[in-house]
Amino acid sequence: MSKNRINILRKKIWAENLDGLIITHLDHIRYLTGFTGSAGLLIIRKKEADFFTDFRYKDQAAKQVKGAQVKIVKSDPIAALKDYPQFNIKNYVYGYAGEYLSVNARKRLRENFSDALLVASDKVFEDLGWVKEAEEIKNIKKAVEISDIAFERILNIVEPGVREMELAAELEYQMKMLGSEKPAFETILASGYRSALPHGTASTKKLKKGELVTFDFGATYDGYVSDITRTVVLGKATPKQKKIYNLVLKAQLAGIKKVKAGVFAKAVDESSRKIITKAGFGKNFGHGTGHGIGYYVHLGPRVSPLSKDKLMANNVITIEPGIYISGWGGVRIEDDVLVTKTGGKVLNKAPKKLLEL
User: Fold this and answer.
1) Which of these, 2, 12, 264, 329, could form a disulfide with 195 (CB 3.0-4.6 Å)?
2) What is the overall mean pLDDT for the chain?
3) Most distant CA pair in the chain: distance in Å?
């Protein structure tokens, strides 16, 4: 598994006229080698791959790392590179993922690889992990199942007076108890006027009767994530709440219906967006319709008006249109969808009918 992934990346090294890649992003490292620790650096060259970590992870790396030689260093991996002159070859060209490398880390790399040439090579990484292997899909399905069950479990404690942060904590606790390694991202839980915030992370606000409550959360299983959004009403829904909810649901179902291998992701976005726009709420839907998920939560393909990506079989993407009205509230509905040659397969089983709690 990992060796094949490294070999795929190695082909890109040749195509980009690089001599090697320096990989510091831990999610990339886990995807490529299987290592789950918090300190490491991977160097892939045309014939070899070497993984650097410190003494804390000696036994763990020996057990987990596949497809690369493990080197245990005395200091942090970037600083330790100076002790390996065989990698610091004059005029050797190493690529790195600039998007995931801080200015300070880039500076330190240049200091310790003074003879080699370092170039940002984000193109090499841009479609890494988009197309899933069978085991990856299995893990995503399990992460989805965990999030679905956790959501069902907390519905009976969604009531007036409960703080958003309490609900978010309980949701994350239930996912953990069901086998999630950690939340896929910081849980978004926003009620009432705050549900108009697309990324309204949980606050100390107390839920009130009659409010919309949006839950956007995900589990992590064996390194793979889920990403689900559901919006409920605390009490009996008003006609306006029903109207907005049903409009978003209609848009989401239209987007899902458009999903199929070979279709441009932009067309999926358009299928959802045109329904909301035609109803007069286009200005209230300001984000993309979805994104890929996998070994972390925002992979490609990107499902947005600006996307140039084409869907491929075994992509897993989110479909998550929303309407957000400042001072009133918002609705978003999101599922994880497996792309196949014949259409999109929704992985979530959590209900999408409007729940009046």
Assistant:
1) 329
2) 95
3) 70
* Alpha carbons 287 and 306: distance in angstroms, whole number: 11
80 C-beta neighbours (distance < 10 Å), count:
18
Q: Pairing state of beta strands 93-96 and 20-23?
A: parallel
Tell me if 159 sits within 8 A of 180, measured CB to CB: no
- The pLDDT of residue 8: 87
Cα–Cα dist 119/98, whole Å? 9
Tokens matching residue 37: 């620790």
Give the residue among 156, 149, 152, 196 at the shortest CA–CA distance from 176: 149
Q: Which residues pair with 346 in a beta bridge?
A: 337
CA 48 to chain CA mean position, Å: 29
In whole angstroms, how far apart are CA 326 and each of 164, 192, 284, 331? 19, 10, 9, 12
94's tokens? 């190493």
Taking residues 319-344, report their average pLDDT: 98
What value does the mean pLDDT take over residues 105-117?
89
User: Per-residue pLDDT tens for 201-238?
Assistant: 999 999 999 999 999 999 999 999 999 999 999 999 99
Domains and CATH numbers, the chain: 2-125 (3.40.350.10), 134-346 (3.90.230.10)
Q: CA 44, 49, 53, 57 torsion: positive or negative?
A: positive
Q: Which helix (H) or strand (E) is 325 found in, with range?
A: strand 322-325
Average pLDDT estimate for 184-195:
98
Give the rounded percent of residues in the chain with a pLDDT score beyond 90. Answer: 85
Q: For residue 267, which phi and psi values (nearest 5 degrees)?
A: -70, -35
Q: Which helix (H) or strand (E) holds 80?
A: helix 77-80
Q: What is the DSSP letter of 182?
A: S
- Is this model's pTM higher than 0.70 or not? yes
Give the closest residue to 176 by CA, choosing from 160, 153, 156, 158: 153
Answer for the pair 69, 50: CB distance below 8 angstroms, yes or no.
yes
pLDDT at 2 over 80: no
62-66, 83-87, 297-301, range with the lowest pLDDT: 83-87
